[in-house]
Design goal:
The complex is a heterodimer. Chain A is of the alpha+beta class. Chain A contains nine helices and seven strands, in the order E-E-H-E-E-H-E-E-E-H-H-H-H-H-H-H. Chain A folds into two domains: about 110 residues, Beta-grasp domain (Ubiquitin-like (UB roll)); about 140 residues, Alpha-helical ferredoxin (Fumarate Reductase Iron-sulfur Protein, Chain B, domain 2). The termini of chain A are far apart. The model of chain A has no long low-confidence stretch (mean pLDDT about 95). Classes of the chains: A alpha+beta, B alpha+beta. Chains A and B meet through helix 1, helix 3 and helix 4 of A and helix 3, helix 4, strand 12, helix 10 and helix 13 of B.
Chain lengths: ~260, ~600
Amino acid sequence: MSKTFILKIYRGIPGKQFWEEFELTLRPFLNVISALMEIQRCPINCKKEKVAPVIYESGCLEEVCGSCSMLINGRPRQACTALIEPLLKAAGSGVLTLAPLSKFPLIRDLHVHRQGMFENLKKVHAWIDAEDSYDRGFGPRISQNMQETMYALSTCMTCGCCSEACPQVNADSAFMGPAPISQVRLFNMHPVGKLQAEPRTHALMEEGGISECGNAQNCVAVCPKEIPLTESIAVMGREVTRQAMRDLFSLPDVDNR
Amino acid sequence: MKLAEKGCKVKLISVTKCKRSHSVCAQGGINAAMNTKGEDDSPIIHAYDTIKGGDFLADQPPVLEMCLAAPSIIRMMERFGCPFNRTPEGLLDFRRFGGTLYNRTAFCGASTGQQLLYALDEQVRRYEAKGLVEKFEHHEFMRLVLDEEGIARGIIMLDHFTMKLDVLKADAVVVGTGGPGLIFKKSTNSTFCTGAANGRLFKQGMRYANGEFIQIHPTAIPGEDKLRLISESTRGEGGRVWVYGDSSKSIQTSDGKMIPCGKTGEPWYFFEELYPAFGNLVPRDIGAREILKICALGLGIDGQSQVYLDVSHLAEEKKHKLESVLGIYRKFTGDDPRKVPMKIFPAVHYSMGGAWVDWPAADDVDRWTRYRQMTNIPGCFNVGESEFQYHGANRLGANSLLSCIFGGLVAGVEIPRYVDNLATSYSQMPSRMYSEAVAKEEAFKHDLLTRNGSENVYLLHDELAEIMVRDVTVVRNNEDLKQAIESIKKIRDRYQRIKLGDTNNTLNQTLIFAAQFDAMIELALVMAKGALLRDEHRGAHFKAAFPKRDDVNWLKTTIATFNSGKDEPEINYRPVDVRYHKPILRDYATAKKIQPTLENVPANIPLPI
C-alpha cells in the first residue's frame, strides 16, 4: 500500500481565501511542483469535490528563475526544490501546507504579483550605465576574488523570499527589502559601475532605504541562492555613511574611492 | 535594447517577468573565437566548427557573420557588467565545449545564461526607466494583426491576470519566444516554452523551417516534472561518461568495426573508446544516440535507462567552477556528485528548427531591399531559438546564447531601417482591422470556455507528449512516424471535445494552456511530418533505415506551410547556401586541429556591433 500525504493549500482571490486539502501519493524525490501538476490533471480535493486546478507560478523548475516562490510550511522558498518527503519528515507530519507570499498583492491561489521588487531595481539604478552596445574593447581586468564575489551577488533572481521573511517589509513601511541593497553593492563594486556609485548610494538614503533595515537577519536565512545579504547590507551601511560625509563637504574626492 | 538605443519606442510582451525567461537555464557558456590560449583559433575556424557541427544544413552566410561578431559580443557583455570567470591575470577565461577542439567558451560559473540574461535585462530596465521601453509582463501574444497586403501592423495580446484581450498597434513585431519543449512535456525547457507563439504565427501563414531537427541533450537528470540539464561544461572540465563494461556484448565503431563493450564489471568509458579525438565532448546528437544504444544493449546503470557522468575525480578547483550544476544534482537527487557519479539520461533540449527568416548576405545584390531576421510575413521578425538559421541539423554547445544575442542585435539594426522604409504607419491603418482581429480571439476564447465534451486538455497533452518522445526524438522510422501523425490528428479531433475544469476569469491557467495547445498540435505535426519525409541521417535526425547523410537528395531546408484546407502541413524545400565550404564527411573520431579554408568570404563585412 503506497503512502499518501495531504497538501493543504491556502487559495482563492483577494478577500476570498480559504484552505483546501488534496490527498496525493508520496513518491521519492516528489517536489511541490510535481504535486501541483498532479492536482492540475485531477483536481479532486479531500472532500471528493472536483475543483478548479490550483494556480501557481513556475518556470525553470531548477531554482534559477525565481518564479515559484511561496510559503511552504510557513517558510518562503522555491517550490521546485521543495522535496516533499524530507519536508514531511522534518515536520513530523503527513500534511504539507502551501500559501502564497503575503507581502505582495495576491492575484489568485499561489500566484502573487512581485512587480514592486522590479520597481525598486529601477529606483536604485541596478545596471551598468553603458551608453550603447558597441564593442569598445576589453574592459578593465577583474581579479578572480572580485569575480567570485560579484558572481555570487549576481545570482539574485528577484524571487522575493528575502522580502517575505523580512519583518521590516510590510504594509506600513516603504522599505525596499534586502535584495535591491545587495544589488547596489554589486554594481558599486564593479570597476565601471563604481563611476556611478553616487546615485545608487543616494537611492539607499531615501525613504524606504537602508536605514529601515532592522537587522533581523531573516533574509540571509531564506535566500535560495545563499547570497550574503547581511554582509551586503553591512557594506552598504558603511558606504551610505561615507556618502553622507561626502555630501556634507561637497568634495567628491574625500575619502578616495 | 538595441531598438531603444536606436530611438525606437518598444513595447515588450512576455508571459513571465523578462528576468525569469528560459535563457536563465543555460549553464555552460557562450562561444567566441578570441584565441586567448595561443591555440591559433579564429572566427573562421569557429564558423567551420559550427557549419560542420550542423551537418552542413545551415545556410552559411549568417553562421559566418555570427562567428565574426562573437568576440565583439563578449566584449559588449563584459561592458554590461556580466561577471565572466577570469584567469589569475584578471582576463576573461575560456574553456572547451562540445564539437570543437578549441577553448573558446566564455562562462560565468556554471550558470552563464542567467548572468547574460540579467545583464541584458538590466540594460532594458535602464531604457525602461527612461521611458523608451514599456513592459507588458504576464501578457501573451495571441495573434498578429495583418493589413490587406499581409503586412504586420501590431498584435492582439491576452492579459493573463484579467483574461482580457487587448490591441497593441505597431510598425514592426519581433518574436523571441524560445523553444517548443513543452510539446514533449518533459524536456530541459521551462514550463512556458510551449512554442505556442510560433504555432500561432504558423497558422497565420508564417513559414516554419527544419522543424524535424530537435536536439536531444545527452546528459540530463531524469525527473517527474522536468528533465534537468547537466551542462556540457561538466564534460568540458574533464567529466567522464561510463557504464560497467560487459565483454560478452559488442558495439560498432564509427568506422564499422565491432569491439567488445569494455571489460565485464569494470568502468567502460565508451565515448573515449569510440571517439578517441573528441572523447566525451562529441556533439550532442552523437552523444545522445550513443547513450541510447548503450542502454538498449542492457548496459544502463541498474538495468535502467541511465548512464554515469562522473566528476568525482576532478580537482577541487574544477568542481568549484561547476558548483551550481552539481548543486542542482544534489538538490534533486540527494546524492553528492563530488563523491559519486551522476546518473543521467538524454532529454529533449533545443529546437534547431523554427521560423524561417531571411538573410540577405553581405555581398548579395538585393541586400538592402531585404531584411535580416524577417519572416515571410513583412514586418514580423523572429530571433533566438524560435528561428531556424544558425545551427543547421545540430547545435553546438555554447552557440545558442551567441545566436540569440547576435540575432537580436541584427534585428535591432534591421528593424529601424524597415520602419524608416515603410510607406504607411500603423496610425494610418483602419481601426476596423484591429477590432476584427480582437473579435477573432474573443470568439476563440469563448469557444474554449464553452466546449462541453469529456476530454481533459492536460491528459491530451500527456498523450501528445508520449507520441512525440517515443516516435519523433532520437530514433525515428517511417512506420512509426506515419502512425504518429495519424495519432496527433486524432488528438486534435478530441481537443475539440475538451471541457475546461476552470471558467474563472482571473488568471485562468487552464484556459491559457488550452489556447496554447491548439498551436502546439500544429507544430507537433510539422515536426513529425518533416521527420517522416526526410529519408537520410543528418545531425540530430536519425533513421536506422537511412544511416547515411544524403547530400544529393537532402541538402535542403525543410519549409512547412499551414494550409487551413488540409489536415497536415504542406512541406516544401529550399536549397542550402553552402557558398563558403562544401559539405564534407562529419567525422569526430579522428579529427585533428586543422586550418579550414572558407572560400568566397567577402572583405569588410559590416557587423551590427
